[in-house]
Design goal:
Number of domains: 2
Largest sheet: 6 strands, parallel
Structural class: alpha/beta
Radius of gyration: 22 Å
Shape: globular
Helix content: 40-55%
Strand content: 5-15%
Length: about 400
C-alpha cells in the first residue's frame, strides 16, 4: 500500500518506520532539516531502535515537504502534528490538523485519514460532519519517549474510533507490522477512542502525583520513601512501575492531556482529574522548599530533560523549580548538552563543560542522576529512588 505520514515527531516517525517495512511511505514535515536527516538515514529524534531500523533495515521511505496530489493518492494518510494545550481556549490547539484537513478536502483525496495527534473529545466527529467527503478516523498512540518504535512493534493495544471496513483495514496494517502475538484490538466510537487516550494519560499523571505526594509525606516525617513504596506496591492490585518519585510530571503529554480532560468534564462533578495539575504544582513548590533548607547560593541544574535518554525538555518540571529558586535569590547554572552552544536560558548561565559546572556550584539538582555525577554524589539533590524513569 501507499501511506503518507504528516508530522515527523515521535508518533509520526515511529509509524512511518514501522509501516515502511512492508509498504511505501512518504514522510511529510514542515521542517526540511528533519526530512533531510531521515533521507540520510539519521533519526531526527532520540530513539535508538528507530536509528537502527533506518540504518539496517530495507525501508520503503521517501520524503516530501509539500502535501500535494501525490499525497492524496495514498491509501492512508496519517496526521501526527502537535496539538498543544491553549489556556485561552481551554482546549488543545488543533489548528495544524485543521489546515491539513482543509487542504486534503480541497485536493479531494479518497484516502482514509488517520488522526494520531491527541485530540479534544468530539473533534473527529466534528470534522467528519464538516468534511462529508473525507473519511477521517482517530487512532490513539501509547508511546514512551525514546521507545516509540519499540512500543509500536510491541503495542499494549491497538485502538481505532470506528468499526467500518476502512478502520479494520488500518488496524490490520498495524497488527501485521507488529512483532507481538495476540495484540489486543479495540474498535469503538471516535469519542470513546479520544477519551481512552486522555483518561489513560491522566491515570499515569495521577500515579506520578500519588507517589510524589507519598515522597513529600515521607521526607516531612523523616521516613524512608523506598520502604513506604516497596510496602505499598507489593500489593498486586497496586503493582510496581511508574512509582519512582520525581520533581513532578512533565513532557509532551501528561500536563496538557490532564488539562484537556479536566476541561472536557465541564459541569460533570469531578475531583480527581481537576486536582492533578494542582498536585503537580504543589509538588514543585515542596521540592523548592526542601532545596532551600540547604542554604546555598550557587545551584547547578544537571539536565533540563527530566528523563534519561530524552532529547527534549518541553514542559519539564525543573523549569518551574528554576524560576522559583531564582525568585529566592539563588544563582543558577545549567548543564544541558541539548542546548549546544547556547550561553543562557531562563535568565541562567549555561555551562557546557562539566568540570567547570561542578566547580561553580554548591549543590547540584537533578531529576534522574547519571554516572557522571558519581564523583560529586555528596552534592547532588534528587528524589530518584529506583534509578529509572
Amino acid at each position: 500500500m501507499k501511506i503518507s505520514v504528516i508530522g515527523m515527531g515521535y508518533v509520526g516517525l515511529s509509524n512511518a518506520v514501522l509501516l515502511s517495512q512492508k509498504h511505501t511511505v512518504i514522510c511529510h514535515d514542515n521542517n526540511p532539516k528533519k526530512l533531510d536527516l531521515i533521507n540520510k538515514k539519521i533519526s531526527p529524534i532520540k530513539d535508538s531502535l528507530i536509528q537502527s531500523y533506518l540504518k539496517k533495515k530495507s525501508l520503503k521511505l521517501s520524503i516530501s515537504i509539500d502535501i500535494n496530489e501525490q499525497t492524496t493518492k495514498s491509501d492512508f494518510i496519517i496526521i501526527s502534528t502537535p496539538t498543544n494545550y491553549d489556556p485561552k481556549q481551554d482546549s488543545f490547539d488543533t489548528s495544524s490538523i485543521d489546515e491539513i484537513l482543509k487542504k486534503l478536502n480541497q485536493l479531494k483525496t479518497n484516502a482514509s485519514i488517520i488522526l494520531k495527534s491527541t485530540l479534544p473529545i468530539g473533534y473527529t466527529t466534528s470534522v467528519n460532519k464538516k468534511y462529508k467527503k473525507l473519511k477521517i478516523y482517530f487512532s490513539p498512540e501509547f508511546l514512551r519517549e525514546g521507545n516509540a518504535l519499540y512500543d509500536n512493534l510491541y503495542p499494549s493495544r491497538i485502538i481505532i474510533g470506528n468499526k467500518d471496513n476502512y478502520s479494520q483495514r488500518f488496524v490490520s496494517l498495524l497488527k501485521k507490522a507488529s512483532l507481538k502475538k495476540d495484540v489486543q484490538i479495540f474498535m469503538m466510537s471516535s469519542c470513546e477512542a479520544e477519551s481512552v487516550k486522555l483518561f489513560s494519560n491522566s491515570y499515569l499523571a495521577m500515579r506520578v502525583a500519588y507517589f510524589n505526594e507519598l515522597d513529600s509525606f515521607a521526607v516531612s516525617n523523616k521516613m524512608n520513601t523506598k520502604d513506604l513504596i516497596d510496602g505499598v506496591c507489593s500489593d498486586s492490585r497496586i503493582g510496581k512501575g511508574y512509582n519512582n518519585p520525581s520533581f513532578g510530571f512533565g513532557g509532551y503529554c501528561l500536563p496538557k492531556d490532564t488539562l484537556q480532560l479536566s476541561s472536557s468534564f465541564a459541569d460533570i462533578p469531578n475531583a480527581i482529574v481537576k486536582s492533578l495539575n494542582k498536585s503537580n504544582q504543589l509538588r514543585k513548590k515542596y521540592i523548592v522548599q526542601d532545596i532551600l533548607k540547604f542554604r546555598v547560593k550557587y545551584i547547578g541544574i544537571y539536565l533540563l530533560a527530566m528523563k534519561k535518554d530524552s532529547d527534549n525538555f518541553r514542559e519539564s518540571s525543573i523549569i518551574d523549580i528554576i524560576k522559583l529558586l531564582k525568585k529566592n535569590g539563588k544563582v543558577i547554572y545549567i548543564h544541558e548538552p541539548l542546548l549546544g552552544i547556547q550561553k543562557s536560558i531562563f535568565g541562567c548561565t549555561v555551562v557546557n563543560d562539566f568540570d567547570s559546572f561542578v566547580s561553580k556550584t554548591n549543590l547540584i539538582i537533578t531529576n534522574r542522576p547519571s554516572k557522571e555525577l558519581n564523583k560529586v554524589q555528596n552534592r547532588v539533590y534528587t528524589r530518584d529512588i529506583y534509578g529509572e524513569n
